[in-house]
């Protein structure tokens, strides 16, 4: 699985050029770092609806059980969060040591930062989505 930013409407002339696999693999650690630096959680910009307790199907069944999700977020708020995470990981050994591949995570966050800057300029909304 990977995490990538989606935009509404689509960005013009910009695409997310990272795999997003490390962002998916490390999202719990990124959330913990964000909380430690008083930033919104990384995952708070994605679909964070609770999974029903009695759910035991696969991902496609979950989409059907939860129904459509049409929430979008401010790219400026997402940009602040991404910049705060990049700075914290780059500047604080305590944070970078929590990640398996801190330099690669910073690279994926930096690519997301580039896309979010374009989203702010173009006036589009964003959210984090998952891909297999």
UniProtKB/TrEMBL annotation:
Domain of life from the UniProt record: Bacteria
Region (Disordered) residue spans: 41-64
The name this protein goes by in its record: Uncharacterized protein
Organism of this sequence: Blastopirellula sediminis
Comp. bias regions, Acidic residues: 53-64
């Amino acid at each position: 699985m990977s995490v990538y930013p989606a935009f509404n409407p689509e960005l013009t002339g910009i695409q997310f050029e990272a795999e997003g696999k490390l962002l998916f693999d490390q999202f719990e650690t990124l959330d913990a770092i964000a909380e430690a630096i008083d930033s919104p959680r990384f995952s708070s910009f994605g679909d964070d609806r609770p999974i029903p307790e009695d759910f035991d199907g696969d991902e496609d069944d979950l989409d059907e059980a939860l129904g459509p999700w049409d929430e979008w977020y401010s790219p400026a708020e997402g940009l602040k969060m991404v910049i705060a995470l990049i700075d914290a990981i780059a500047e604080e050994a305590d944070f970078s040591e929590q990640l398996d591949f801190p330099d690669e995570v910073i690279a994926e966050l930096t690519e997301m930062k580039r896309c979010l800057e374009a989203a702010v300029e173009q006036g589009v909304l964003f959210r984090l989505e998952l891909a297999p």
